[in-house]
Amino acid sequence: MSNLLYFLKNNLSMRHMRLLVALDDHRSVVRAATWMNLTQPAVSKALAAIEEGIGAPLFRRGRSGLVPTDAGACLIKHSRRVLLRVEIAERELDEIMASGFSHVSIGTLPTAAVYLIPNFIARLEGASARTTVSLREGTMDQLLPALRTGAIDLAVGLLGGPLGPEFSTQLLIEDPVVATVRPGHPLLAEPAVRWEQVEGYPLVLPSPHTLARGAIEALFLKRHIAVARNRIDSVSTMANVGTIQVTNSIGFLSRSLVAHFARLGVLQVLPLAVPPDVALHIGLVWIAERDRTEAHILAHDLLIDEARRLTGALEGVGP
Questions:
Q1: Burial 134-170 (b: 16+ CB within 10 A, else e)
Q2: pLDDT tens over the chain, length 319 residues
Q3: CA angle, 316 as apex, 313 and 319 as ends, to 5°?
């Protein structure tokens, strides 16, 4: 066994990891010592012991204070992950031991947070009165790192390209994109809406560099229609819906989302022929080799079941 491996397995402690994170956060031995309620010599001695065990310097002095070396940045990154997992374990164990409750943490796209997640939570409450849920809303760029660190257990996100070998995925909903406007929009008075009539109206579109945005832009290009400069590029569901509600903008949003707000009288589907392959592939993502609790498995199964029910309910909705 190498000296490095021996040190990591037998000598690197939680106290060491907290020290490295504190040094990275405060960039100063003095400030880190104050934060940890230790003396400066004690911090310096502990850092020297870690560096000796690793066999490499972990920090160098820069203009703004201590700066991690490549080895230091690597060890700090993994220390943060370990400390986060311990914090999550402590919180979940407290819940279980104090009240018998289990816990699942879910990250979700803003779109799915409006229609899929509330129905899932209602199903979960009926299936298990002793499971608590914490939710985090974000894009895939935010949800995948949270999955890696263990900050969330499951993610409801967009599936497209490969996510990496550590992730497992399952398609929940293939959600077509539809054109939508406010009730009373001028184009709703037309006997048939043509693509060229879209030009000149402000647009509400998915953010650039997303799969849905690329498909929509290709659709416009095929019909020789310029994407309006007067547009909103956004993943904020409520900002998108609010903008469409009070302007003559034309939005290109998921069918499920539009159906939800159409039932509330806020949006209306614009009868414009958007090809069915312009769709959001919303799926469940989790870490393949991470152990899952009964609460995780229950949440997984209920999300899949609710997605099936929602898909069936939405058949025939569209222009």
A1: eeebbebeebbebbebbbbbbbbbbbeeebeeebebe
A2: 578 887 888 888 889 999 999 999 899 999 999 988 999 999 999 999 999 999 999 999 888 889 999 999 999 999 988 888 787 777 767 766 655 567 889 999 888 888 899 999 999 888 876 788 889 998 888 898 888 888 899 999 988 777 888 899 999 998 888 999 999 999 999 888 888 888 888 999 887 777 677 878 888 888 888 776 778 888 788 999 999 999 999 999 989 899 999 999 999 999 988 888 788 889 999 988 877 888 888 899 999 999 998 888 766 554 4
A3: 130
Please give, one letter per residue, the 3-state secondary structure of 145-192.
Answer: HHHHHCCCCEEEEECCCCCCCCEEEEEEEEEEEEEEECCCCHHHHCCC
Phi, psi of 286 (to 5 degrees): -150, 165
Beta bridge partners of 145: none
Q: Which residue pairs from 34-40 have beta carbons closer than 8 angstroms and sit at least 24 positions apart in sequence?
A: none
Domain that holds residue 63: 3-83
Token reading at 161: 């390209």
249: number of Cβ within 10 Å: 22
From first CA to last CA, the distance across the chain in angstroms is: 66
Burial class (CB in 10 A: 0-12, 13-18, 19+), 183: exposed
| Both structure tokens of 113 | 């947070």
Q: Looking at the domain assignment, is residue 95 inside a domain?
A: no
Query: Which residues are registered as beta bridge partners of 137?
Result: 108
DSSP 207: P
Same-domain pairing of 274 and 289: no
What whole-number distance in Å separates Cα of residue 266 and Cα of residue 272?
18
Task: Identify whether residues 76 and 121 lie together within a single domain.
Answer: no
Flag whether 91 is in a domain.
no
CA distance 230 to 11: 60
Give me 206's structure tokens. 């998915």
Q: Looking at the structure, tell me whether residues 273 and 137 fall in a common domain.
A: no
pLDDT of 249: 94
